[in-house]
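Box 3.1 A note on notation
Throughout this textbook, protein chains are presented in two layers. The first layer is the amino acid sequence; the second is a token string describing backbone geometry. Keep the layers aligned when reading.
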Amino acid sequence: MDLRLDRKVALVTGSSKGIGEAVAKTLAREGARVVVHGQNAEDSLAVARAIVDEGGRAHAVVGDLTKDDEVERLVRDAQAAAGRIDILVNNAGGSGETEDWTTTRPQTWAAGYDRNVLAALRTTASLLPAMRTAGWGRIINVSSLAALMPPPGRPDYAAAKAAMVAMTASLAKAVAADGVTANTVSPGTIHSARLEQAFRKAVEGRGMPFGAAWADVEREMLPTFAQVPMGRVGTLDEIADAIAFLASPRAGYITGVNLRIDGGMFPGL
């Protein structure tokens, strides 16, 4: 399917690694001009160069999304390099401290909210006026299945990701008549470098070699980590493909949705 992204410009926050990197590369393969963002210039440039080496169009910007002035600067840099931003993927964020209800602190919640919710708010507020004026725009916020199925640990992270779902629903209603859509994607258990490292370390304690085939590691560890009906973890490309579709003109009548990509983990409506 042609997603008709060849004349679109996308800014993907937190795209120097992980889900964001996969999203940036997928959008570029679909024809979009992509602005890669991270806090480390070398990492961001490496992803942008990899996209260009594959025949895509990419630029890199750097900035801390918890600081208003840095967001303003990186948005200016992105627009100067690539033109008006049509697509914003708010992927940057993360869980931060590992705390539970016996150790959690208000400052951890504040930092997590800033890193996830307010970071997305800053970039959205900066780019939204131009999208509304142009009569076209796509905003995709990356949340987590933890927003819908909060675990007992890291309550600050689950709460922040739940706030992102709510803010997206509000935004979608506010801008629907302006040709701008806003949607959330909530990944479940995804095959990242961090997850693979954790799985491999755990299987060592069960007598399996650290370098065992991934399929064997996954089969051994997944049931104790998450009850995924599909029996496997998701891939970065599966997340990226879904986001690319939501970012495209073909998804023009989809807004306010929280798309779960979780292999069937969520128990239902």
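The first helix runs from residue 18 to 29. The chain has two domains: 9-190+235-261, 191-233.
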